[in-house]
Design brief:
Layout lengths: L1 H15 L22 H5 L13 H4 L11 E9 L4 E11 L4 E17 L4 E2 L4 E2 L8 E17 L4 E14 L3 E15 L3 E8 L4 E7 L19 H5 L7 E5 L2 E11 L4 E12 L8 E3 L2 E13 L3 E13 L3 E14 L2 E9 L9 E10 L11
Antiparallel strand pairs: 1-2, 1-19, 2-3, 3-6, 4-5, 6-7, 7-8, 8-9, 8-10, 9-12, 10-11, 12-13, 13-15, 14-15, 15-16, 16-17, 17-18, 18-19
């Protein structure tokens, strides 16, 4: 029966991933979400599609929410690309019946204090103005996502779930975009073996960009016409225009293995593979327009109090450097209902100088009898 459900789900995945035509495909249209959440999962290389079973499942696999027994909240902060990009994630999960759970989550990735030098250039003299800092302003570029998730337990081993997703992207006052889609997932949990499938952007995300032409206005006046210079006159290029892009689905296959090694300690392993259909061929294992992105990780847990983790969150074959592996390590501690986790890795890969990434996350379970999942 379980295999039948999995086969039906995979059939829906393949139908949903049929190539789109007559549309512009965005290879990295939702890339700000690709870094993942939860320092525990990221320290294990992001191999978490089958293992996610708490509030962080809103990202990895919404079906994992069905395993929560009490309300849970989570928060993570990360600094990426040597601190240039800040990333924040917050989520809450709440069991609403004996077999159903809902979740809400918010993501923000942003670069702040970007300098706007449009009006610091002296057009007539073709050089920076005197005291150019007086004409320089700052703006931020931010990508945000809001998800509402639902999960349901079909039996003690099999769970399903889905998330509705709204994307908001802004580049100061210059341009902004909206996007909409949904994710779906399934999990099967045995005593030691775990299986999971998640489909990101099942409906195919449509991102529509609009450009605010007035934000590109130049203050300096053209003495010949008596009107301000245009962006094209000053920089000899056309003003950017709005456009619409498609973000194609990504199939994420996950597996896990739990090995008790004593009465107090456990080893957990995970192996995931992401399958993308958007033509990513550079630095990726691929068959034509289909690319494969494996992830691998493990965790040693003692008395469910402390844990050590390691993983590989990117394994790729590059033309310039051969095999490129992005490692990650981390640790965690549980203090009653509160868990604090730390993950560390080279976000850009061993062959990159983009800097390291530090991730810190907290997870709290509200273990009160009145909030426990209702029984049948």
């Amino acid at each position: 029966m379980i295999l039948r459900h999995l086969n039906l789900f995979l059939l829906a995945v393949l139908i949903g991933c049929a190539p789109a035509s007559a549309q512009r495909i965005a290879k990295y249209g939702a890339d700000f979400l690709a870094g993942g959440v939860d320092a525990r999962a990221l320290a294990m290389g992001g191999a978490n599609v089958a293992q996610a079973r708490n509030v962080n499942s809103v990202y990895w696999n919404p079906s994992g929410l069905a395993h929560t027994e009490y309300p849970e909240v989570a928060y993570m902060h990360a600094e990426r690309f040597a601190g240039i990009v800040s990333f924040d994630f917050a989520a809450i999960a709440y069991p609403v019946s004996h077999n159903s759970t809902v979740g809400l989550s918010f993501f923000r990735s942003g670069v702040n204090d970007i300098k706007n030098t449009l009006n610091a250039w002296d057009v007539e003299r073709n050089q920076p103005k005197a005291n150019p800092e007086s004409y320089i302003t700052s703006f931020s570029a931010a990508d945000m996502a809001f998800l509402i998730s639902y999960a349901r337990r079909l039996n003690p081993q099999f769970t399903v779930g889905a998330s509705g997703k709204i994307i908001r992207r802004t580049i100061g006052d210059f341009a902004d975009a909206w996007g909409y889609s949904f994710d779906a997932g399934v999990q099967w949990h045995g005593d030691r073996f775990l299986l999971g499938v998640q489909l990101q952007d099942l409906s195919t995300m449509l991102q529509s960009w609009s450009v605010n032409a007035s934000a590109f206005s130049i203050e300096e006046t053209n003495p010949d016409t008596g009107v301000p210079y245009t962006f094209t006159e000053v920089f000899d290029q056309e003003l950017p225009a709005g456009d619409t892009f498609l973000v194609l689905p990504v199939v994420r296959l996950g597996s896990g293995l739990i090995l008790p090694i004593s009465s107090h300690s456990t080893l957990t392993f995970g192996l995931d593979v992401d399958i993308a259909f958007d033509g990513q061929q550079a630095d990726a294992f691929n068959l034509g327009d289909i690319s494969f992105h494996p992830r691998l990780g493990g965790e040693f847990s003692f008395r469910n109090l402390v844990a050590l983790r390691a993983g590989m969150n990117r394994i790729a074959q590059t033309d310039s450097y051969g095999l490129d592996v992005v490692p990650s390590v981390g640790a965690g501690i549980r203090l009653g209902p509160l868990s604090v986790d730390y993950g560390f890795g080279d976000f850009g890969g061993l062959v990159s100088d983009l800097g390291y990434s530090h991730r810190i996350s907290v997870h709290f379970t509200w273990k009160r009898a009145q909030f426990r999942r209702p029984s049948e």
